[in-house]
Amino acid sequence: MSCFGATASAFERSVCDLAEDSQATVQNWEAGNFDEWPNEAGLEALTEERGPVKLRTIGEIPAWAAGSLYRTGPGVYSVDLDDSGRSYDVQHWFDGLGHVHRFEIVAPKSSDSSEGTSVWYSSRRQCDDFIAQVRAGATQGFSFAQRKDPCIGLFGKVMSSFSRKMVTTKNLQVTVSPDVGVYPQDSVKPLIDTVTGHTANVKSLWAATDNAYVRQIDPITLEPGPKCLTLGDMGTEFAYHSSCAHPGRDPKTGDYFNYGLKFGRVPTYSIYQLHEGDSKPRVIADIQGPGVAAAYMHSCFLSPSYFVLCIPSSHLAWNGLKLLWNLNIIDTILPFKESQKCRWFVVDRHHGRGVVGRFETPAGFFFHSVNAFEDDEGHLFCEMVEYPNTDIMSSFYCNVMLDKNGSGKSFWKSFASKPGNMGALRRYQFDINAELTSGLGPAPKLIQSRAT
Length: 452
Prior knowledge:
This protein is mostly beta strands. It folds into 2 domains: 45-229, no CATH class; 230-388 and 423-452, no CATH class. The protein has 7 helices and 22 strands. It has helices at 18-31, 39-42, 128-135, 154-162, 323-326, 398-401, 407-416, and strands at residues 49-54, 67-76, 78-80, 87-89, 97-106, 118-125, 175-178, 205-208, 214-217, 224-229, 248-249, 256-262, 268-274, 282-287, 301-302, 306-311, 342-348, 355-361, 365-374, 379-387, 424-431, 445-451. A 4-stranded antiparallel beta sheet has the order 1-6-5-2, with no helix packed on it. The longest helix has 14 residues, at 18-31. The protein is globular, with a radius of gyration of 23 Å. One of its GO terms (biological process) is carotene catabolic process. It comes from Ceratocystis fimbriata f. sp. platani.
C-alpha cells in the first residue's frame, strides 16, 4: 500500500517486534513489494538552482534555527559523450556525480517583524570538469563500483593503470564539512548581514568521500574549487591512500578526527586530529600488525573520550593494492568470510595514551555509525546499522534499483533466500581497561538489536 498522501504519525517499534518485523521484511522481498518504491525519480538528473530562491514556508520556523544547512549527494547518472548517442552511464548509486544543496534559514530582522523566518535555496553541480574530461576521452579514475569498459582488453587495463590520461577530478559527493583545520579557511561574505542562529558564518566548506581527497566549495555560490587536495598537498608529509567519508567532530572544540589508511605489505591506520590553527595533523595512534587488515569502511565513532575504529569484514585484496588495478572499491573487496571478525580499536584522544582497548565482534559490515557515548562506570557504547555480510553493497547498483531486465527482482529474492541477511541497529558495550597494551579485551556485550 502506498503511503504517499497519508497523515504523518509516530510509528514505534521496539526490540519486542524484531521477529515480526524481520519476517515481514523477508516476505516483502520475496513478494517483490519493492516495486512500490519510486526509485526512478531518485535516479533522475537534478537541475541546478544557483539562485538563491525563496521557498514557500508552511508553518513557522523558530528564529534560533537560523543558519546554513548544506547537503551533497549524487545528481547526475548519465553523460552524453557526443551526438552519436554514446553515453557514460553511472552503474552504481554511490558513483552518481556530485550535486551540492544549500538551505539558508534567515531569521526576521526584528522580533516584531510580520514576515517570520524565511528559507532560501540554491544548488550547484560539482562535476562539470569531470564531465569535460570524460567527453575528452579520459578513462575513469577511482570509484566505488564503476567498472571499466568491457571492450578494453588486458593491454588497455595495464596502460590505463599507469597512464596519466585519467580523470584527475575526484567525484566527492558524500559529505560536506565546514572549517576543517589545516586546510585553507577563506573568509566569505554571508548571504545576510547578520546570522543570529545556532551556526556561525562558514569560513570554508569541504566535500569528501571514501578516499584521501577533499575539495573546497564556495559556501555562498557553491562553486567547486579548481583542484582536489590531500593532507600531503598541504606540506604536512602525511600521506595515505584511503579514509572514511564520515569523520568525527568534537562539538566543543570543532576538531576533526579520522583515519588515514596506507595500503601495502603492512596496512597501517593512522588516527589523526585536525585542529584549527595547526599546520599539520596530530597523529594520536598508529594501528598495524597481526589481525589488522586493509578494509573498506564508511564511518567511524567518536565519544567524549575516545576515537573508535571498527575494521569490518570488508577486507581489500592485496592489502588494498588491488584497488590500483580495479580502480573501484567493490571489486577489490574480498569474498566475505565469517572467520574474519570485526576488529575494534579504542583510541584515547585527550591524554596521548594511544590505543587503550582492542576487541572483536562477529563478522559483519556497516556503512554508518549512529552514536557513541560513555557511562560513569567506564563503559563505552557504540551503535551502528550492521549487516551480517557485504551483500547489501550490490543492492545499490542502478540496474537493481530500477529493476532493469528484472535485476531488482532477481537480487532481492536471492537476498531474501539467505538466512540472516537482515540488517539491524545494534548497540555494543565495551569495558575499557586503561592499562591494556596488547591482546584483546573482554568480549563486548550486544545490548540491543533492532531490525532495519
